[in-house]
Each structure stands twice: as structure tokens, then as C-alpha cells.
């Protein structure tokens, strides 16, 4: 059974007030709050078991290494990856996308080679490709979404031409909440022999992910949106692609031998994890994944579907609110604008009422341009949100309409 009150009870921050009213946290798309088990694990890791990993033979280093390395298996289970050896631990999706750009794409791509992107992408899955465009003449090929925010998988497949070397798409838009049919895109791309990189930063938060069923080649997740610490994350890389990766950053831990004249590298995934990693953030990330898996991703998705339906009905009933993104099956992420009020002003008024939303361009400027909006407010729901909080949001928006409408 899913008991939202019991879930909320596990988040100390949800008990606090903001500006004299109980906090309504609707900025989960930017970063989620952390349950007590994650906070406790961080305290234990630093307070009892801390040492560097992979380096020492002493007890604390062994404890730390075992806890850190144990996270690989948790990520593999969370994503249903075939092997934990295909999991690279990192600081989050921005690092993951840059790693794929430099470690996999850069050595293989020639000037004129194409990367197919959707207009739904976050800057983390755009700017690394622009850097390759600037440095080595790679061409970015864009696929637009429909006005409701949905993305036609066939349009992505049709954009793949003879020079396309990679398709890079999000699983779930952080702005519109659109769920992208990654399985269909991967099937079509595979037939054309083109690998698919998936930004799962939002997707893995809101639905069960099975990378084998999706059929993609890379799937990146980020710890801080998965109720874990910031500065943690992972990317699953299919075995065939992993064999094609070149070292990304050089330093300790990613080598086998170093002499004055030469270097040999550790096998993957270690080859892709240079230097002292985010040891404790990664350990906390593992605890957060266990916590989510204990609740059950299907139960989390069902709870959030209820919130989505209720919020869609209530927000849809405000005829002075323009919702951006109404694609069928979307997640509980709502971006909106209001005539006469800037997104920043709406956010400020809501904050006075203890309601946290995000305002701005959401690191998705090409999408904002495509939608024809300068900035939006975004209310993004998570596992601990309630229908009463949807009502609080609507009350706050009605106040904005009174003030600015
Ligand atoms: N991709 C999407 C869809 C996101 O929403 C975000 C975070 O806002 C990122 C990538 C960046 O992830 P990270 O914060 O781990 O670098």
C-alpha cells in the first residue's frame, strides 16, 4: 500500500514552514528532497566509515570501498541493466553527457557527421554537442515536438540519415513532462545502425526503467533528482558501446600502469572514473535508490499519475492560465504562463505562500523558443506531494491572477 503521509514523515524538510506557512515543495524537477535514511547514511559514511576508496588496505578504506562499489549493483538493479560492470558512477547527468561526447563521440565523429536531437532537450544534452560542433564540425539535427509537447518517434527515426552517428534524446521533458517513446526510437535507430543516448534525469524519477526493454545504448540518471545527494549519478552503457569508449579524464584510479613514457588504462568502468569520486554522495545515492525500489517504482508512478490527473483538471480549469505541454501520458510536471504576469513574479508570490516552484527557461532555451514563451513557471511533483498541495498551488495562482491578471 502507498501511504503518502508515511512517506512525507520521512522527509524532515517537509515539516518546516516557509514564510510562515507549511512548505509546499513543487520544485522536484530541479532537485528532490532527501529522506531520513539518506541523511543517516551520509552521517554514517562520514562519521563512522570514511576513508578514500580503492586505495587503502586498512579497515575504513575497505568499508568505504565496499559501500561505494555496492552502488554499481544498485544502479544496475534500478535500471535492469544486464551487468553492474556496465555502470559508470559520476557526479550526475551533465558529467555523463560530456563523457559520452568526449569519450565515445569525439574520437569517432568526422566533420559533417550528425547528431540527432529533439527540441525537448535540456542544455546538458545540447551544449556538449555544440562543443563538438565548434571543435570538430559536427552537425546538430533537430526534431521538433508538436504544440502539445509530444514527440513523434517516427520523426526522430526519419531524421536519421547516412551521416548520423548518434541519436540523443530525453526520456521525459523537464519542462512539459512529455514522456518520449524511447523504445520506438531505439528500434528504428538500431535498424539504421545508429546508437541512442537517453537522458534519463527525469524519466527514471517518475517511472520504472528497464534499459534492456528500451533497447537504447546509453542511459544517464542523476542522484539529486532521485531523492539522493547532489553530485551523484550514473550512466549505463551497453557492452558494445563501452568497448568503444576512450578515456575521458586522466588521473588516479583509471590507470593500470604509468611510466615516464607510457600509460595503460584500467578496464571499464574504472577507466571512466578518474580521481577521487564523490564517495559519500554516491553511497547516499545508493541508499536513495534502495529507498525508491523498496517503495516500488510502479507505486510511485501510480501515485504521481493521480497527482497529474488532479493537477491537470484543476490547472486546466483556470482559463487565464496557459499550460505548456499537455501530451497524453505526460508526467506530473506542469509549466505555465499567465498573461500580464512574469514567471518570476508568479514564483515570488507563490513563495510568499510557502510554495516552491521554478521560474525561468529551465535549461531548455531551444524548447522555450519553439513554444514561443520567454519564461515559464514550473510546478513539478514528486513522491511526497499530495492533492491538498495541488489545491494550495491553485489558491496561490488565483492570488496571482487577482494581483496581476
Ligand atoms: N537533463 C534533464 C532533463 C534535467 O532535468 C537535468 C537537471 O535539471 C539535467 C539533465 C542535468 O542534470 P545534472 O543536474 O545531474 O547535471
UniProtKB/TrEMBL annotation:
Class in the EC hierarchy, top level: transferase
Keyword terms, alphabetized: Pyridoxal phosphate, Transferase
Residue ranges constituting the Aminotransferase class V domain according to the UniProt record: 24-393
Catalytic reactions of this protein: (sulfur carrier)-H + L-cysteine = (sulfur carrier)-SH + L-alanine
Pfam families: Aminotran_5
PROSITE patterns given in the database record: AA_TRANSFER_CLASS_5 (PS00595)
Any one GO biological process: cysteine metabolic process
Keyword DNA damage: no
GO molecular function, one term: cysteine desulfurase activity
Cofactor needs: pyridoxal 5'-phosphate
Record keyword Ligase present: no
Enzyme Commission (EC) number: 2.8.1.7
Family: Belongs to the class-V pyridoxal-phosphate-dependent aminotransferase family. Csd subfamily.
Stated role: Catalyzes the removal of elemental sulfur and selenium atoms from L-cysteine, L-cystine, L-selenocysteine, and L-selenocystine to produce L-alanine.
Name of the featured protein: Cysteine desulfurase
Organism: Pseudoroseicyclus aestuarii
Lineage of producing organism: Bacteria, Pseudomonadati, Pseudomonadota, Alphaproteobacteria, Rhodobacterales
Amino acid at each position: 500500500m502507498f501511504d503518502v503521509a508515511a512517506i512525507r514523515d520521512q522527509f524532515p524538510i517537509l515539516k518546516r514552514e516557509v514564510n510562515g506557512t507549511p512548505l509546499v515543495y513543487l520544485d522536484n524537477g530541479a532537485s528532490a528532497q532527501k529522506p531520513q535514511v539518506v541523511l543517516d547514511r551520509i552521517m554514517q559514511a562520514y562519521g563512522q566509515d570514511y576513508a578514500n576508496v580503492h586505495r587503502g588496505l586498512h579497515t575504513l578504506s575497505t568499508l568505504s570501498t565496499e559501500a561505494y562499489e555496492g552502488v554499481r549493483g544498485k544502479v544496475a538493479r534500478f535500471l535492469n541493466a544486464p551487468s553492474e560492470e556496465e555502470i559508470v558512477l559520476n557526479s550526475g547527468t551533465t558529467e555523463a553527457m560530456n563523457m559520452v561526447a568526449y569519450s565515445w563521440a569525439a574520437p569517432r565523429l568526422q566533420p559533417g557527421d550528425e547528431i540527432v536531437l529533439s527540441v525537448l532537450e535540456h542544455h546538458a544534452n545540447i551544449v556538449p554537442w555544440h562543443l563538438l560542433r565548434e571543435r570538430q564540425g559536427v552537425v546538430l539535427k533537430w526534431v521538433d515536438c508538436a504544440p502539445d509537447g509530444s514527440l513523434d518517434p517516427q520523426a526522430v527515426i526519419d531524421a536519421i540519415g547516412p551521416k548520423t552517428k548518434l541519436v540523443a534524446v530525453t526520456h521525459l521533458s523537464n519542462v512539459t513532462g512529455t514522456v518520449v517513446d524511447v523504445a520506438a526510437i531505439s528500434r528504428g535507430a538500431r535498424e539504421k545502425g545508429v546508437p541512442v543516448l537517453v537522458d534519463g534525469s527525469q524519466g527514471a524519477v517518475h517511472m520504472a526503467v528497464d534499459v534492456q526493454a528500451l533497447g537504447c545504448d546509453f542511459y544517464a540518471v542523476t542522484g539529486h533528482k532521485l531523492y539522493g545527494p547532489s553530485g551523484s549519478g550514473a550512466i549505463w552503457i551497453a557492452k558494445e558501446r563501452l568497448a568503444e569508449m576512450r578515456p575521458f579524464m586522466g588521473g588516479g584510479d583509471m590507470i593500470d600502469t604509468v611510466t615516464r613514457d607510457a600509460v595503460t588504462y584500467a578496464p571499464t568502468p574504472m577507466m571512466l572514473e578518474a580521481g577521487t569520486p564523490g564517495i559519500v554522495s554516491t553511497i547516499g545515492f545508493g541508499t536513495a535508490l534502495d529507498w525508491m525500489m523498496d517503495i516500488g517504482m510502479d507505486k510511485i508512478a501510480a501515485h504521481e499519475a493521480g497527482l497529474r490527473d488532479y493537477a491537470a483538471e484543476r490547472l486546466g480549469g483556470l482559463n487565464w492560465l496557459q499550460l505548456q505541454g499537455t501530451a497524453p501520458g505526460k508526467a506530473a510536471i506542469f509549466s505555465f504562463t499567465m498573461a500580464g504576469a512574469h514567471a518570476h513574479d508568479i514564483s515570488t508570490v507563490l513563495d510568499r505562500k510557502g510554495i516552491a516552484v521554478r521560474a525561468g527557461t529551465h535549461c531548455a532555451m531551444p524548447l522555450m523558443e519553439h513554444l514561443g514563451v520567454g519564461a515559464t513557471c514550473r510546478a513539478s511533483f514528486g513522491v511526497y506531494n499530495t492533492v491538498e498541495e495541488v489545491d494550495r498551488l491553485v489558491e496561490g495562482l488565483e492570488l496571482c491572477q487577482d494581483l496581476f491578471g
